[in-house]
């Protein structure tokens, strides 16, 4: 019963993440919705699977999958969002202080870069 409930809550979170990707206009907001909610949703689905499994080998496989997902997904989404920010920039009308571009020797794109 507990495993099925965890899996159901995780599936709902993954569904909400997918809806967030469809609903948001900004690419960075889409990635934020996808990275946060889907990570928690997948972890809850895996926790529900681990609760329902009986052999130690199956449980350790699910725990390893969850650990790898936690270690890989957030840094990967951070790198993709950073690359998107450097290419697309900030939507017009938003004031942003970027402290990470200058030390890297990079610059944020401006309106002239996006036109051509």
Structure commentary:
The chain is 78% helix and 0% strand. The protein has 116 residues and is mainly alpha-helical. The chain has one domain (2-90, 98-115). Helix 1 (2-23) runs antiparallel to helix 2 (27-52) and helix 2 runs antiparallel to helix 3 (56-88). The protein is elongated, with a radius of gyration of 19 Å. The model has no long low-confidence stretch (mean pLDDT 81).
Beta-strand fraction estimate: under 5%
- Biggest pleated-sheet summary: none
Mean pLDDT: 81
H/E element sequence: HHHHH
Rg (C-alpha, Å): 19 Å
Question: Can you count the helices?
Answer: 5
Give the beta-strand count. 0
Shape: elongated
Low-confidence stretches: none
State the end-to-end distance.
Answer: 57 Å
Please identify the structural class as seen in this structure. Answer: mainly alpha
Secondary-structure blueprint of this entry?
Elements: H1 2-23, H2 27-52, H3 56-88, H4 101-104, H5 111-115
Helix pairs in contact: 1-2, 2-3
